[in-house]
Amino acid sequence: VALTMPAEADASGMECAGGAGTAASTVEDIGRALRLLRGPDQDSEPNGGKRIPGDKAVLREGSFLEEWSKKLSTQIDKAARLFQEARQLQKDEQVVKDCLATKFPDHSREGGAFGAIRSIGTEQRTELHEVLELVRGHAGHFGSAEELVVGIPAAGAASRRLPGPDIVALLAELLDAASRALTKHRKEQKKREEEKQESH
């Protein structure tokens, strides 16, 4: 196995580069890299070219090139992971855009897709919290609902940190208790009216 670099490549490389200084520098860099691989005892080909046999091109253990190769491999692996993450992020962003277009067509897209969905989440969370506080303030009118209110964190930062699903579950229970209390009240009121009519 051999890698051959003809001597005449230097002159043609300079011409193709369009400038003697730039071409010379490039050829010099390539030559330096080749010499590192060749080693000091490498023979030249009869035509003046430089050949690198496979056994001489092997990166020896503990050599500068072996260390450089390991670092390069690490960076390549890191770049591959970053590329995969970027592709996944692109896919996720498209999913968010589709969701915005379908569920929130009139909402502002300021700040990009992720910024928009975060803004919507904040708005909805604020509205849920306002309803929660409203129900808390009127729970005394609903009898058994007071027991549910005891389990709700105190008004303020603690209740604002409640996850959205937890708030929805609490509201569902509170509203269910309020509905039962209202139904009971209507039945009692109807019964009183009927008794009043019978007494007349």
Low-confidence stretches: 1-20, 38-49, 51-58
Measured as a percent range, the helix fraction is over 70%
Number of domains: 3
The total beta strand count reads: 2
What is the straight-line distance between the termini? 118 Å
Region (Disordered): 1-22
Task: Give structural notes.
It is a single chain. The chain has three domains: 2-58, no CATH class; 59-106; 112-199, no CATH class. Helix 5 packs parallel to helix 8. It is built from eight helices and two strands, in the order βααβαααααα. The protein has helices spanning 9-17, 20-38, 54-57, 64-103, 112-138, 145-150, 157-160, 164-199, and strands at 2-5, 50-53. The model is unreliable at 1-20, 38-49 and 51-58 (pLDDT under 50). It starts with a strand and ends with a helix. It is mainly alpha-helical. It is elongated, with a radius of gyration of 39 Å. A two-stranded antiparallel sheet has the order 1-2.
Q: What is the secondary structure topology, with strand pairs?
A:
Elements: E1 2-5, H1 9-17, H2 20-38, E2 50-53, H3 54-57, H4 64-103, H5 112-138, H6 145-150, H7 157-160, H8 164-199
Antiparallel strand pairs: 1-2
Helix pairs in contact: 1-2, 4-5, 5-8
